[in-house]
Structure formats: structure tokens, C-alpha cells
UniProtKB/TrEMBL annotation:
Annotated ranges, domain Helicase ATP-binding: 288-455
GO cellular component: primosome complex
The protein's name: Replication restart protein PriA
Entries under SUPFAM superfamilies matching the protein: P-loop containing nucleoside triphosphate hydrolases
Keyword Aminoacyl-tRNA synthetase: no
Keywords: ATP-binding, DNA replication, DNA-binding, Helicase, Hydrolase, Isomerase, Metal-binding, Nucleotide-binding, Primosome, Zinc
SMART domains recorded: DEXDc, HELICc
Gene3D superfamilies membership: P-loop containing nucleotide triphosphate hydrolases (3.40.50.300), PriA, 3(prime) DNA-binding domain (3.40.1440.60)
Positions of Zn(2+) 1 binding: C514, C517, C554, C557
Subunit structure: Component of the replication restart primosome.
Organism this protein belongs to: Apibacter adventoris
Catalysis performed (reactions): Couples ATP hydrolysis with the unwinding of duplex DNA by translocating in the 3'-5' direction; ATP + H2O = ADP + phosphate + H(+)
Assigned EC number: 5.6.2.4
Length: 807
């Protein structure tokens, strides 16, 4: 067994073979981290995927440099899971590795150079070479990135090469471990002082240094009281930095360091579980019965029905059988109320994993999971990648939520769907929960693949809120607030209750337009209009981040007739402040929630009733559970329906149902939906709380127009800064695929909905396939089309992304 195949953190197909040096042969295991050279002098951290003795015939193998630890960081199950993801989502194993593994554990290679021992013949060097050698006079070693500061990038390699050939420098690869364990400094007494004679003598030697003597006595006292080590910080606090330093210098005390967990211990009281209501009890029983027959069960429980409590009791039952659980939540909910609730119940058994953790905290949760220290993991979508031990139960809360799909970096996976595979490795049970289940889950239920449990009553037998439509064509109290809504808000506030208002656009106004010439300032990098942010008096692009000051005159015709069109949350806030000057208003959107702990502060204020009206984007629709929210208002429902996406209606109904669900969770509440089109049949479903009927309508349409869940989609995106090139490659692939896939199932290539983002022109191809069929063939056609593209030099620079099951 002297070869290994490893996974490199690169977007390259397959694994790579290396030779194992003799001294490592007995130590190497699958799943371990190793350092390997790749592509010239670069070093990477790779993961061992396979150990074998098949010597590659076509090339000579390089050797592994070193092992990073003597145990596997990746489990066998994870390797299987990574392979499945790479295969299904059509990306490389390296893409999965890069995304699934904590960044702090992936070492980075940087080439360093240092001076050799040879004398420097300064007069023979050209000025570029002189620069480099001078920098090495002041520092022993410099990396190539730093040289970019004084030499043009393209010159660096030739200059370094020449100095190298002259024997003046040596290159030197250094690996930088990014993960820094947290260390605490402790103190101990000089062991010689165990002998009381020596100790007495030492005390006299301290002489007049009273403070030192005092500190030493405090230390001894502490040590007698404790079974643990004494932290240096504690003694410093009781005495002073300089005194402790002196004691260490005089060798009365010795310092030493230990690694500790960054995870803070939960030291509050543990709460008992609640008594379930009759309905909850029944739902729980139904779920358990369904698990006898099905691996996956969906709990369809209306908003406020107490699904969380049912999750906890199931987790508890699994825990009693020594089985671990994973609770997945949409990204936003993770920073909110549920985390506190689960910690109150399960204390230190819980590990939390999400994107707001810093890299070191991520490593710790990873290691603790590997060591089976967390019996329960609560996390956002990326937590499916943790090295689980003994995972027996997985819950996907709000399973319909689109944040389970990763859409910014490869792999473009959907956590809910991946969980179905993950569970087969562990033979675990999966519970999906939602008040507004996805069409995919309905379909799976129809197909007999998953069990289904209904919980159609709110906890405490409280009625779901009463919903009314308000016609925006009637006179208005403010540009976007009807008299009726204003009146209802006043009443709600008079009764000392709280209000949530939902609008799906952030900023002040999506468009600034000139009334003279019709010009609307757009983003220079993208084909979109800039959004006006009044607070900062700027125009921002929500796609690439471009920002400019609001121009005083029209950039096109120089008139002063610039006006804002459309509305954003900032504008609603302004109108509300104007209508209710005495009232405490807060806004919740990406712009206000950027700071760390912004959510916690806002939720605290909401629970303490220090906020009367909360205005926000989609963020306010998810999971919030505040006793005093009696009124929910939707500013403009039409803007949800009119999005050009086949999922627009499904999403609109889900959003309206979810946001309505924030109202009246302790006592029946009210929902007011403002719209220009109150007769739209979709609103009937929302008003009557009839999600089942809505789902029928949506599913019929999906079937007719060949969309999910009846058809699977694969979307190809072509991007290039040269429009012609992007189009050419898209056409080439389209023509190739036409041989195998016929018209209604192959759409495009066509321009992206936004034809240019961040200076990249975009073309798209959409492929459909009946869900009953495997996508294997389609995927192989796509692969061979892309292989052909890679053969053509001129086309290689076009970026091609494959999105399997796009949302
Ligand atoms: N058995 C119980 N005893 C006491 N309180 C309960 C019980 N079950 C639920 N509750 C309370 O009822 C409220 C609603 O429950 P929960 O937040 O779990 O609803 P949900 O089904 O998750 O709703 P949503 O889908 O709207 O998020 C919570 O404040 C919860 O603490
Ligand atoms: Zn832009």
C-alpha cells in the first residue's frame, strides 16, 4: 500500500495519485489531511480518499510531504457524501472539499524566498534585482505576494528566476496553519518550593517587595482552594501585571499554556419540556407511526402550532436511545429565538454551526462533532457537512425555505434534498417541517415516498388571524399607506400591541428617473437600475455593490427633474414616522442587520416591547414568535406575484402565509394585505388559509408547463466580458444538445434575465426532464458538450456554471 489518491481543493475532475514515503506508510489512513506539492512549487492540503498499490503507468508520482495529524478529519460517510454531491450537482470533488471543509483547516501555500549565504555582487545586479535583494536585507524571508508591492507582477518570476540562477536566493515553501487554537496561560509554583525550607527562604528573599509577597501568598491560597490550575489572568486581577511578571522572572512562579475550547459553556438552568397539547401529542404519535413505514415524514403544521416543541420531544427520545440529532434551520432563524430555546432545553449537548461563526469557531464545532461531544447540532445548510457520529435523526425546519439552496458558490446543493442521501448512510430518520410545504414534498408524498402528518390547529386553540384585503386604488393616507391600514394600526397601538409591516424591497426607492428625458441612472457594471438609499444619499447596485452619490441633476439632460419611482423599506419607514410621530419604529433589512448581534438586539427590543412597529423585508416573515404582535400589514402584495420566475406564485403564497403567521400567536390577530388587484384568486387562498387549495392550483400549472416537481431542471449559464464570446459558446453547447434533447425540453440559449452582471454578459440554457426518469443521460450529454468546449482554446475563458435543480 504505497500510493494514495487525494482530493485537492481545486476545481479539477477526480482525485490525484501520490506516493507515500516509507516512513509514513504505516500511519496513513483514509480521510487524513496531507500536504502535497501540485503544479510547480505550490503546496496544498489534500484529503486522502483511497490507499492502494497500483503504480500509475503514465507518469511518475510525486511524494506526499507530510501528514497533518494522525487521525482522519473526514469520515468514510463524508467521503461517500462528497462523491454523491459532486456527481449529482455536476462539480468536482475539489469544489465540494473547498466548500464543505472549514477554511481554517485548509492550509495555504505561499512561496517564500530568502537570501543565500553567497556575497551579493551589488554592481552586477540590475535595478529590479537590487530591489528584491534589498528587501531581503531587511527581512529574512519575503513572499512573492509582497514583492508585488514594488515590482510589476509579470516581472517577478523572471527576476526571481535570475537571482535563483545566480545562487543569491533560495526558495522556501512555508505552510501557514490558519487555525489558531485558543490558549490560556496558567501559573504554577516553582516545584522546588514543595520543600518548605526552600520556600521559607524564598519568602525572606522577596524582602521589601511586599506586593510580590502578598501576590505569592494569594496564589498559594487559591491553589489550596482549587482542584484546577490557576489562570494567570486571575492573579493579575487580584494583584497587578508588573508584580506577577516579577514573580515569574524571579522563578517563583512558572507559566504554561493549555489549549481550550472556544465554545462557551452553557451554565444557565436547564428547562423541563412542556406538556404537549392533545393535538401535539397526536401529531407526535403520528410521526412515530409513520417512521415505522417511511424514512422521511413531513409535518404540515400551521403557523404557531407548536412544531418546535414536537421537534424537541423527538430529539429527546432519540437522545435517550443514544442517537444524535441534526436540526437544520434557514440561515436567518439560526441567529434568532430557536437557538436560545434549544440551549435552554439541552444545554451543552448542543453545537451550533452557521455562517456568522468565525473560522476558528467552525473548526471547534467540527472537531467536537468528530469526537462525538455534540449530541445535537443545530445549524444552517452548511452543517450537513459536519463529521457526524451516530446521526439518527435529522429535522429540516421550514423545509420550503429557499435559503437551503446554495446559489453563490459551487456546489449548488439543496440541503433538504442532500439530507435524503445523508440519512441513508446513517439509516437515520428525517422529519421535514413547514406550515407551507414545498411542491416537491407534496409530490413526494403523492408518489408514496414520504409520510405525512397534519397539525392544523394553533397551540392553545387560538384561531389563525383574520385576513382582509385593502384596495390600493382607494384614497391613501400616505403615498403607500391606506386610510384603512393607518386606522387599524392606530387601534392596535392603542391596545398596547405591536405591529409588523412587510415589504419585499430594501432601500428607499428601486428607481430614480428623470421626468424630462426619462433617463434612469443604471449600474455601470450591470444591466439594472440603481436603488436609491436615502439615509446615505447614495445610489447602490444590489447586484455588484457599486455605489455612487445621488446626482443633483439628471446625468443625461441636466434638468433638475429627478424623481424616485417605486418603494423600498426606507420609504415605508419614513411614511410611518410621518403618520405616527410618537411611535417607536424599527427597520429590519440587510442594511440594518449587518452588524454582529444586530438580530439579538432587535429581538430583545421586540420582546421587551421597546418597539411598536417593525418594518422589514422577507426577514420579518420567518419564524418570529412575539406575544404582542396583533397586526401584520403587507404594503404591496402585487410586487410578490409579478416576478418572472415559475416559482413566483408558490413563493408569494408561502411568504404571505408565513408573514400572516406572525400575528396573534397568543390571541387571534389581524392581517391586512394592500393590493391593486384584490380579486386575484391567489389571495383567496391566503385569506381563507387554504394552502391545500393553493397547492392544487400551483401543481396543475406546473404539470401543464413542464416544471418541477413533475420535471427536473438543469440550467447552464455562460458568462464572459465579451458578449459575442459568451453567446458563441452558449450557441455551440445548445447546438450540440439539440441532437439529444428536443424542443419543449430544451430552452435557449437566451440572454439572462439581467443580461449583464458585474461586467459579465450572461446567456442561459434550460434543460427539462420528467422526474420519473433518471438524469444520468442528460448529464453525460452536458459533460461531453463541455469537454468539447475545453478543447477549443478560444472558448476556454468563458465561464460555464451548471445548476442542477435551480430554484
Ligand atoms: N406544549 C406547549 N406548552 C406551552 N407552550 C407551547 C407548547 N407548544 C408550543 N408552545 C408555544 O407556542 C408558541 C408557538 O410555537 P412554535 O413557535 O413552535 O410554533 P411553530 O409551529 O414553529 O410556528 P411557525 O411555523 O409560525 O414558526 C411558542 O411560543 C411556544 O413556546
Ligand atoms: Zn452592478
Amino acid at each position: 500500500m504505497n500510493f494514495v489518491n487525494v482530493i485537492l481543493p481545486l476545481s479539477l475532475e477526480g482525485t490525484f495519485t501520490y506516493k507515500v514515503p516509507e516512513e509514513l506508510q504505516n500511519q496513513i489512513k483514509v480521510g487524513q489531511r496531507v500536504v502535497v506539492p501540485f503544479g510547480g512549487k505550490k503546496l496544498y492540503t489534500a484529503i486522502v480518499a483511497e490507499i492502494h498499490n497500483k503504480k500509475p503507468e503514465l507518469y511518475t508520482t510525486k511524494e506526499i510531504y507530510s501528514l497533518l495529524e494522525d487521525f482522519p478529519m473526514i469520515t468514510q460517510n463524508q467521503l461517500k457524501f462528497w462523491n454523491w454531491i459532486a456527481d449529482y450537482y455536476m462539480c468536482s470533488l475539489g469544489d465540494v472539499y473547498r466548500n464543505a471543509f472549514p477554511s481554517a483547516l485548509k492550509l495555504e501555500s505561499e512561496t517564500f524566498i530568502r537570501k543565500s549565504l553567497k556575497n551579493i555582487p551589488w554592481e552586477d545586479l540590475n535595478d529590479k534585482e537590487t530591489f528584491v535583494m534589498q528587501s531581503l536585507e531587511v527581512r529574512t524571508s519575503v513572499n512573492l505576494k509582497e514583492i508585488e508591492a514594488f515590482l510589476a507582477k509579470k516581472n517577478i518570476i523572471p527576476v526571481i528566476k535570475s537571482l535563483f540562477e545566480k545562487g543569491l536566493i533560495e526558495t522556501d515553501e512555508q505552510i501557514i496553519e490558519k487555525y489558531k487554537p485558543k490558549k490560556i496561560t496558567y501559573l504554577r509554583l516553582n516545584p522546588e518550593f514543595d520543600n518548605s525550607e526552600i520556600f521559607k527562604k524564598a519568602l525572606t528573599e522577596i524582602g521589601k517587595a511586599h506586593k510580590q509577597r502578598e501576590a505569592l501568598l494569594i496564589f498559594i491560597q487559591l491553589q489550596q482552594q482549587r482542584t484546577t490550575y490557576i489562570e494567570k489572568g486571575e492573579l493579575v486581577e487580584k494583584s497587578s501585571q508588573s508584580v506577577v511578571k516579577a514573580l515569574i522572572e524571579k522563578k517563583y512562579l512558572f507559566e504554561f499554556q493549555l489549549e481550550v475550547d472556544r465554545r462557551e459553556e452553557y451554565d444557565d438552568n436547564i428547562e423541563d419540556s412542556y406538556l404537549l397539547s392533545e393535538k401535539q401529542q397526536k401529531a407526535l404519535k403520528d410521526i412515530e407511526n409513520n417512521f415505522i413505514k417511511f424514512e422521511t415524514v413531513l409535518l404540515h403544521g400551521v403557523t404557531g402550532s407548536g412544531k418546535t416543541e414536537i421537534y424537541f420531544q423527538l430529539i429527546d427520545k432519540f437522545l435517550n436511545h443514544k442517537v444524535n440529532s441534526l436540526l437544520l434551520l434557514p440561515e436567518i432563524s439560526i441567529t434568532t429565538q430557536l437557538v436560545g430555546k434549544i440551549q435552554k432545553r439541552f444545554g451543552d449537548e448542543v453545537g451550533i454551526y452557521h455562517s456568522k461563526l468565525n473560522p476558528n469557531e467552525r473548526v471547534e464545532v467540527w472537531k467536537n462533532t468528530l469526537l462525538n461531544r455534540h449530541k445535537i447540532i443545530i445549524g444552517a445548510r452548511s452543517s450537513i457537512f459536519l463529521p457526524f457520529q451516530n446521526l439518527g435523526f435529522i429535522i429540516v425546519d421550514e423545509e420550503h425555505d429557499s435559503s437551503y439552496k446554495q446559489n453563490d458558490t459551487r456546489p449548488f446543493y439543496h440541503a433538504r434534498d442532500c439530507v435524503q442521501i445523508l440519512s441513508t448512510f446513517f439509516k437515520s430518520k428525517v422529519l421535514l417541517g413547514s406550515a407551507t410545504p414545498s411542491m416537491e414534498s407534496y409530490y413526494n408524498h403523492e408518489q408514496g415516498k414520504i409520510g405525512w402528518v397534519e397539525l392544523n390547529e394553533r397551540f392553545g386553540n387560538i384561531h389563525l388571524p383574520e385576513t382582509e384585503m385593502i384596495d390600493l386604488k382607494k384614497p391613501l393616507a400616505a403615498p403607500n399607506i391606506s386610510y384603512e391600514l393607518k386606522e387599524k394600526i392606530s387601534q392596535c397601538l392603542e391596545n398596547k400591541n405591536q405591529v409588523i409591516l412587510f415589504h419585499n424591497r430594501r432601500g428607499f426607492a428601486p428607481i430614480v428617473e428623470c421626468n424630462e428625458c426619462g433617463h434612469s441612472p443604471g449600474c455601470p457594471n450591470c444591466d439594472v437600475s440603481l436603488t436609491y438609499h436615502k439615509v446615505t444619499s447614495t445610489l447602490k447596485c444590489h447586484y455588484c455593490g457599486y455605489v455612487r452619490a445621488l446626482p443633483e441633476v439628471c446625468p443625461h439632460c441636466h434638468s433638475h427633474a429627478l424623481e424616485t419611482k417605486g418603494i423600498g423599506t426606507q420609504q415605508i419607514e419614513e411614511e410611518i414616522n410621518h403618520l405616527f410621530p410618537e411611535v417607536r419604529v424599527a427597520r429590519m433589512d440587510v442594511d440594518t442587520m449587518r452588524k454582529k448581534h444586530a438580530y439579538e438586539i432587535l429581538f430583545e427590543k421586540m420582546s421587551l416591547h421597546e418597539i411598536d412597529i417593525l418594518i422589514g423585508t422577507q426577514m420579518v416573515t420567518k419564524g418570529l414568535d412575539f406575544d404582542k404582535v396583533q397586526l401584520v400589514g403587507v404594503i404591496r402584495a402585487d410586487s410578490l406575484m409579478n416576478l418572472p420566475n415559475f416559482r413566483a406564485e408558490e413563493r408569494a403564497i408561502q411568504l404571505l402565509t408565513q408573514v400572516s403567521g406572525r400575528a396573534g400567536r397568543r390571541k387571534q390577530g389581524n392581517v391586512y394585505i394592500q393590493t391593486f388587484d384584490p380579486d386575484n384568486p391567489l389571495y383567496v387562498f391566503v385569506r381563507e388559509n387554504n394552502y391545500d387549495l393553493a397547492k392544487e392550483a400551483i401543481l396543475n400549472e406546473r404539470k401543464e408547463f413542464l416544471y418541477p416537481p413533475y420535471y427536473r431542471l438543469i440550467e447552464l449559464t455562460f458568462k464572459h466580458k465579451n458578449q459575442g464570446k459568451a453567446k458563441k459558446v452558449a450557441d455551440y453547447v445548445g447546438d450540440y444538445l439539440k441532437h439529444y434533447i428536443k424542443s419543449p425540453l430544451l430552452l435557449g440559449p437566451e440572454e439572462g434575465m439581467i443580461p449583464r452582471i458585474n461586467n459579465q454578459f450572461i446567456y442561459k440554457i434550460l434543460i427539462k426532464q420528467p422526474s420519473s426518469k433518471s438524469t444520468r443521460n442528460i448529464k453525460s450529454y452536458i459533460k461531453s458538450a463541455l469537454e468539447r468546449i475545453r478543447q477549443i482554446q478560444a472558448y476556454r475563458s468563458v465561464k460555464i456554471e451548471i445548476d442542477v435543480d435551480p430554484l
